[in-house]
C-alpha cells in the first residue's frame, strides 16, 4: 500500500471510529478485519491522542491575541547595552521601544531604539537596515533628528540617535490648540524643508506621521525615524513587507493610496503623508476621518478629503491649496517632492504676505463694477435724449452689465471666503466677462456714434467708456490678476 | 481564472476589508477587553499582506483560505520574534503534554505548531487548511464547513483527526 492510500485508509477508519466510539479500538479493528499493522497502529495511536488532547487548539489563537501580537522585550533603567546605559523608556513604536540612554564614551545623552526582533531576524533584512541607517546618518539638517550609529550588540540591533527633548506633534494636536495662520504656515514650511533635504539625498521617510515629529523646547521641529526610510531604487518586495510586520500596524491612516494598494512608494507618498499631517495639525481632524481605521483606509483609497476650508476658513488660500494638492489620489497630481511644497508656500504666501497685491485685484474688480453702473446710467440718458435704436442699446447694456457684474461680485466673494477655489472660479468666469465686456463696449460705441451729431460731448464720453471697459478687460485685468495670484 | 474575468484591484479592495473585518469580528465577538486593538492590528497587517501579495482569489472560500494563511504567518512570526522557540525548548517534556491538553502555552507553541503543520501538509494539505481556518482565523465548525464546502459533520470528524495528529506531534510521542 502506498503512503497516500494508507493515509486515506487511516483517515476513514479514524472518522468511523470517531462516530462509533468503540470501547476497545483494537477489538473494533479486528472486527473489521484490518490486518495492516501500520494502519492499525496509527489509528489506535490517533484515537488515543484524540482522547488525551483535552482542550488542545480548542480556543482559537485570536483569544490570546494581546499576548500573541506583542513583539518586543524591554530594557530596564541602569541596564548597560554596550557603551550605552539605559536611563528610562521614552516611547514605543512599530519598530520597537525607544529609550533615553547615556553614551558613556562621550558622556552625552542619546535616544536608543531597540529594533523589534521581528525586524532583525533575517540576515538580508539586517543588511537592509544597515544600509538605511547609513543613508539616514548622511542627513544633517536642523529639521531632522540625527542618526549617530547602528549598533549590533549580542545579536540585537540598536539605532542610536540624537535625543530630542520636547513633545510630539501628536500630543500638540490632541491637546486641542490649533495654530494660527502664521504658525501653520511656518510649521508647514519647516517640515517641507526638512523633508526636501532628505528627498534631495534620495531618502524617503515612508512613515511620516504626527508621532514622528517632535517640537523641541526652543520651538523648532524635528522629524524622527528616518531610519525607516527606504533608499530610492530598492525594490519593496512582498518579503520585505512580510518581515516588517510592526512597521505598518497603526499607521495606515498616513499611507498614500498607492502604498495601501501595495504599489511602489516614493517621495510623493511622503508628500501625501505630509498633507494628512498638516491637515490634522491645522484642523485637529483627519482628512479622511471615519469611524474605524479600516473605514479610513477605504476613504483614503476612494473618496475625496473633507475640504480643509470648512475647518479653517481663516487659513491662507495658498496653504489650503497646498495641503489639498498633497492629498491628491494620483501621485502625478501631487507635488513631485517636498522641495516643490517649499517653493509653493514661499511663492504663495510666506515670502509675499497675502493682501499686499490682492488689494489691487479687488480694487480693479470694484472699479469695473462701478463703471458698469455708470455705463447703464449713460445708456439710459442717451435713450431719453434720442428715441429709436437707443432703447435696444440701453436694454443690452443693462443685461450685459448685470451678468458681468454678478460674475465679478462672485469672484470677489470667492477670494474672501475660499481662496483655494478662486483659480477654478476664475477660469469659469473669464470667458463670460470677456464676452460681456466686449458686447458692452460695442453697444456704448454704437450709442456714441448715434449721438455724435446731436450732443458731441456725451457721445465722446460714451465711446471712451466703451473703449475703457474693453481695454480694462483685455489689458489691465490679466496683469492685476497674475500679480495677485502668481504661484 | 483568466485575467479578463479577474476583478480590478480597486474593485477588490472594499471586499477585502469587509471580509477581513468579518474575520476580525470572529475575534471581537468574544468580547475580551483589550483585544479590539490587537484584532485591528492583525487585520491591518493581514490586509496589507494580501494587498501586497496581489494574489487573485476566486471566491469567498478561497479568500478566507488566503487570509487564514496570512494570519498564521503573522502570528508565527511574532511568536518567533519573541523567542518562542527557546521557551518551547525549555519546557519540561513531562508537563508539556498536560499543559498542551489544558490549552496553555499557545504562545511558545506556535513555531512548533507551524512546523508540525508543514509536516501535515505533506500528508494531507486539506487538514492544514482546516486548522488554519479554525485555529488561526477563528471560524467555528459551521463557518469552516461553509468555507470548505463540506458538511458540518464531516468537518467535525476531520477536525478531531487534525487535532489528534498535531497533539501527538507536539507532545513528542509516537
Secondary structure blueprint with pairings:
The complex is a heterodimer of chains A (487) and B (174).
Chain A (H helix, E strand, L loop, with lengths): L2 H18 L4 H7 L5 H16 L12 H4 L11 E2 L2 E10 L2 E8 L4 E8 L1 H4 L2 H15 L9 E7 L2 E7 L3 E3 H7 L5 H20 L12 E4 L4 E3 L14 H5 L2 H4 L8 H4 L6 H17 L9 H10 L5 H4 L5 H10 L11 H13 L7 H28 L3 H29 L4 H30 L4 H30 L2
Antiparallel strand pairs in A: 1-2, 2-3, 3-4, 4-6, 5-6, 7-8, 8-9
Chain B lengths: L8 H20 L6 H19 L6 H22 L2 H7 L2 H9 L4 H18 L1 H12 L4 H8 L3 H20 L3
The proportion of residues in beta strands of chain A is: 5-15%
Tell me which oligomeric state these chains represent: heterodimer
Low-confidence stretches of chain B: 1-10
What does the largest sheet of chain B look like?
Answer: none
Number of helices of chain A: 20
* Order of SSEs of chain A: HHHHEEEEHHEEEHHEEHHHHHHHHHHHH
Q: What's the shape of chain B? A: globular
The unreliable regions of chain A are: 229-250, 349-354
User: How big is the Rg of chain A?
Assistant: 36 Å
